[in-house]
Write a structure and sequence with these properties.
The chain is 26% helix and 25% strand. By secondary structure, the chain is an alpha+beta fold. The structure holds magnesium ion (2 copies).
C-alpha cells in the first residue's frame, strides 16, 4: 500500500451472506418498531422493544457500548440530526423521529437509519423526509464498480441543493463489516470521479443527513447528540449495501 492509500476490505460470498443476515435483522427491527411509533410512547420504550427483538433474532445491538454509547438505538427527534439518546420523552403529534439501528450477527454488522413521522407533520417536514429519502436513492444509483466514492456524495449534495436542503458535512457514511464503522468514509458531498474506487464485494453504508435550514451543527452536553445550530429539523436515511458486478444490493432491505 502506498502512503495515503486506504484499506477497503473486499468481502467473500460467505461474508456477504452473513452481512445479508445482519442487515435483514436490522430491516426487520425497523418493520417491527413501525406500529409503535405513535403519539404517547416514550423513546426509551422503543429502545427496549428493539433490543429485545434484536436479541430474539440471535443478534446483538451494534451501537450499545460502541465508544461508550449507552443504548441500542440512536433516536433523534426534530432538530436532532443523529446520536440522540432514548429517554422518557414521549412522542408528540407532528414530531419527526430518526431511528438508527445496528445489529451484529455472527460477527458481521448491519446499519440502517430511517426518519418517521408521528401523526400529522408539517408540509415542510413532509418535503424534508421525501427529499432526504430520495437523496439516498440518488446516491445509491452511483454505486457500481468503476465509479468512485466522490460520485455518491456529489449526487447527494447536488440533489439536496436543488431542493434547498442543507447537507451535514461533519458526519458521513462508512464501510461496514466485522466492525460497524470501517474504511472508507462515504461523505454526502464530493467531486465526481474522486475518492476511492468502488469494487465488487465492498460493503458500505450510505447515509445522507439533510436539514431544512443551515447544516451547521453542535454537540449536546451528553457529548453525543448532534443538533442543528438553528434548530431547524433534520432527516437521515441509511442503507448498508454491497457493490455487485453491475451495481449494488441493499443488505438492510426486505
Ligand atoms: Mg446508522
Ligand atoms: Mg452508519
Amino acid at each position: 500500500m502506498k502512503v495515503g492509500e486506504i484499506m477497503i476490505t473486499i468481502r467473500s460470498e460467505r461474508e456477504i451472506d452473513l452481512l445479508r443476515k445482519a442487515g435483514n435483522i436490522v430491516y426487520k427491527t425497523h418493520q417491527y418498531l413501525k406500529p409503535f411509533i405513535k403519539e404517547g410512547i416514550t423513546t426509551i420504550k422503543l429502545n427496549e422493544l428493539a433490543e429485545a427483538f434484536i436479541l430474539k433474532n440471535n443478534a446483538t445491538p451494534s451501537f450499545k457500548g460502541y465508544e461508550g454509547f449507552p443504548y441500542t438505538l440512536c433516536i433523534s427527534l426534530n432538530d436532532e440530526v443523529v446520536h440522540g439518546f432514548p429517554s422518557t420523552r414521549t412522542l408528540k403529534n407532528g414530531d419527526i423521529i430518526t431511528i438508527d439501528i445496528g445489529a451484529c450477527y455472527k460477527g458481521y454488522h448491519g446499519d440502517s437509519a430511517w426518519t418517521y413521522q408521528v401523526g400529522n407533520i408539517s408540509k415542510e417536514n413532509e418535503l424534508l423526509l421525501k427529499h432526504t429519502e430520495e437523496s439516498l436513492n440518488i446516491g445509491l444509483q452511483q454505486v457500481k464498480p468503476g465509479n468512485r466514492i466522490g460520485d455518491i456524495g456529489f449526487a447527494i449534495s447536488e440533489y439536496a441543493k436543488a431542493h434547498h436542503l442543507g447537507v451535514v458535512k461533519e458526519l458521513c457514511g462508512h464501510g461496514v463489516g466485522t466492525n460497524v464503522h470501517e474504511s472508507p468514509d462515504v461523505p454526502n458531498y464530493g467531486k465526481k470521479g474522486t475518492g476511492p474506487l468502488l469494487r465488487e464485494g465492498m460493503v458500505i453504508a450510505v447515509e445522507p443527513m439533510l436539514t431544512e435550514g443551515s447544516p451547521a451543527i453542535y454537540i449536546a452536553d451528553n457529548d453525543w447528540t448532534v443538533i442543528t445550530q438553528d434548530h431547524s429539523c433534520a432527516a437521515h436515511y441509511e442503507h448498508t449495501i454491497v457493490v455487485t458486478k453491475d451495481g449494488y444490493e441493499i443488505l438492510t432491505g426486505a
